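Final report, Chapter 2: Outcomes

The project's central promise was a pipeline that accepts a single protein chain and returns its three-dimensional structure in a standardized token representation, suitable for archiving and comparison. That pipeline is now operational. To close this chapter, we reproduce one record exactly as it appears in the project archive, with the input sequence first and the structure output second.
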Amino acid sequence: MSTIYSQVDSNKKKTWLIMLLFVVFITAVGYVFAQVLGYGLDFVGVMLIISGLLSLGSYYFSDSMILTISNAKEISEESEPALYHSVENLCIASGLPRPKIYLIEDSAPNAFATGRDPKHAVICVTRGLLGKLDKLELEGVIAHELSHVKNYDTRLMAVVTILVGMIALLADYFMRSMWFGGRSRSRNRESGDSGGILILIGFALAILSPIIAKLMQLALSRQREFLADDSGALLTRYPKGLANALRKISVDRDPLESANNATANLYIVNPFKSVDHKLSSLFNTHPPIEERIRILEAM
């Protein structure tokens, strides 16, 4: 099992590196925008507060909203004993409190986790997952989702979403300010060549920074999927179970009708089953299935 431990450690380091780059990038963009617009660094702080306040409500209530959108219903031990006991046993093994368990009546096999921390976590699976996977495969999927909970992935991605939203707000504000004039533009014109170069850099960042921030968010999301795969395999001590589950879910042809663009990134496998071309894979929320299976089978 040493291979799994090393893989987990490697993915954690990559995640922290991406987060560090994310923070440095946002700080640099905010600094350039503030300089071009003639404001101090307080401008960046104000935008962060506004973005945080707008996102606060969704942070606390996003799980209930997601479950409502997905038409998910909570299950009990009496209604779904096999699923309930699988989750309960893996929670005991991982030291996590048992999350609420929800079921989507859909024939497409898939699953996701949500909730801001382990005490407010939810594991949601589809009816197709229960019907099309065997016991070991189901345990692999549940272990993957519990790993998301244990690693605070849902909270991390909520914070990153706020940061991406802040970049979009900053870029939009910058473009509006520059188009409709203002004191900062005239100041920078008076400052000579250096001011003109700074304005050009500001325009370039206003156009590119939302795209770059989104790509960094997707890279972090894919890294968390790798980490959850590795942590889930470590929990069950049977990587092949999760590998077989991913293979079955990815080739299943039943559409997941309750999924949409807002919730697709939550599922263990992209419910839209998009093809991973070299260019389009940059914008995918999930790593290529073939790569995930290859890593699991090599453990």
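Archive annotation: Strands lie at 72-74, 100-104, 111-114, 122-126.
This record, like all others produced under the grant, will remain available to the consortium after the project formally closes.
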